[in-house]
Amino acid sequence: HVRGRSEVRYLPGSFGLVESAVPNMRNASHTITARLQIPAAGAHGVIATLGGDSAGWSLYLDENSRPVYHYKLFDVETLVLTGDSPLPTGEVELSYEFTRTGKGPYGGGESRLLVNGQEVAKGTIERTAPALFTIHETFDVGLDTGSAAGQYSVPSRFAGGTIEHVDVTTH
């Protein structure tokens, strides 16, 4: 349980964690940052995910090694950010940033997907989750163990590269 902590580092193999094991990102500005090693052949699969096909988010690489952030708030709100190009070879920092600009319990904000500090996609989330995304899905690093929180088949394991760590920070 991480109540009160605004930053937590997760290592590969962290999976099956309940939502309270992640800093509270609901209705808060936050950043998800993954440090990756990408080979010349590329990589694909889930880097980090919380929730599932009804509500949650996933940061992953598609089959073409392009970064994707997928957010779903039940049947109310969906946002998919996808970079145009595959990740570069070598050490890569992949980040998703959410800056809350809205007011009230569902206040939305601006979303950005970054590769090595450079914006590769952006969008707006109009409404955020006022409470839990899920009571039965989990937070996972390197593998989606439940229903798909993104546009991939489960189980989706990160393959072809290496996840060094994933940091979740609220601010």
If you had to describe this structure to a student in words, what would you say it looks like?
The chain contains no helices and 13 strands. The chain has strands at 7-10, 30-38, 45-51, 55-61, 67-73, 77-82, 90-100, 107-115, 118-127, 139-141, 143-144, 156-157, 162-170. The chain has a six-stranded antiparallel sheet with strand order 1-13-2-7-8-9, with no helix packed on it.
Short précis:
This protein is an all-beta fold. It contains no helices and 13 strands.
Mean pLDDT, as a whole number? Answer: 92
Helix content: under 10%
Rg, rounded, reads 14 Å
Annotation, overall tally of beta strands: 13
Q: What is the helix/strand order?
A: EEEEEEEEEEEEE
What attributes characterize this protein structure?
6-stranded antiparallel sheet, 5-stranded antiparallel sheet, globular, mainly beta
Q: How are the SSEs placed, and which strands pair?
A:
Elements: E1 7-10, E2 30-38, E3 45-51, E4 55-61, E5 67-73, E6 77-82, E7 90-100, E8 107-115, E9 118-127, E10 139-141, E11 143-144, E12 156-157, E13 162-170
Antiparallel strand pairs: 1-13, 2-7, 2-13, 3-4, 3-10, 4-5, 5-6, 7-8, 8-9, 11-12
